[in-house]
Write a sequence for this structure.
């Protein structure tokens, strides 16, 4: 089936550092979404992107919809301990269509 | 918090037994989804619904069936559970997917262990 490659798989960083992660696909998507999942809970939608080249922020989080429509990036600035969790990207090919999820990036932040 | 609940939250069952998981929402969202989450695979779509009695298969639908007789409930049934169906199951709801007005919420998950 369709695959999204998300990298890195895990990150161990110091509090205050910036974080970058990305998602790539062999197919074009019309929507890219980024989620955070904390232990024992369901994912929470952080940012949704609907246009190629779009750059959207949500507090310290910034995500970009790649120009080729085959990739997306998530940046977290000045990380804090509560940023710990697993971050997932997801892509959708058409409006109302199914979401394809990446494998996740596990983020650990050392105080 | 969004009004989406799952029941049961944990279940242990034996191979070959039927299992039904329930997702209930109070948001009146049109779209409902069932995903399973396994290490190394992220979330994979099992089935989804785009309205009452309207359902479609996802990428890992074999061995699962669903029903949606009213807007607020979406049931996932494992007709004869197998050990490969041991997983964490998440329900999700959304409105206006693919538009800038999109809203989306996941339930808290159901941990299923098939022995």
């Amino acid at each position: 089936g369709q695959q999204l490659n998300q990298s890195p798989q895990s990150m161990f960083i110091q509090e205050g550092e910036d974080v970058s992660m990305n998602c790539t696909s062999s197919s074009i998507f019309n929507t890219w979404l980024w989620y955070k999942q904390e232990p024992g809970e369901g994912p929470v939608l952080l940012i949704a992107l609907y246009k190629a080249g779009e750059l959207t922020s949500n507090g310290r989080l910034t995500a970009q919809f790649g120009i080729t429509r085959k990739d997306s990036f998530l940046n977290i600035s000045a990380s804090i301990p509560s940023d710990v969790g697993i971050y997932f990207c997801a892509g959708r090919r058409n409006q109302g269509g199914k979401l394809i999820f990446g494998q996740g990036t596990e983020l650990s932040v050392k105080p | 918090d969004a009004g989406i609940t799952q029941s049961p939250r944990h279940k242990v069952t034996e191979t070959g037994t039927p299992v039904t998981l329930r997702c209930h929402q109070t948001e009146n969202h049109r779209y409902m989804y069932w995903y399973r989450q396994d290490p190394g695979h992220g979330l994979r779509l099992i089935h989804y619904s785009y309205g009452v009695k309207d359902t479609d298969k996802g990428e890992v639908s074999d061995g699962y069936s669903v029903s949606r007789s009213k807007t607020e409930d979406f049931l996932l049934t494992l007709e004869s559970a197998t050990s490969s169906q041991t997983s964490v199951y998440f329900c999700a709801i959304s409105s206006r997917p693919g538009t800038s007005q999109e809203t989306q919420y996941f339930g808290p998950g159901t941990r299923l262990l098939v022995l």
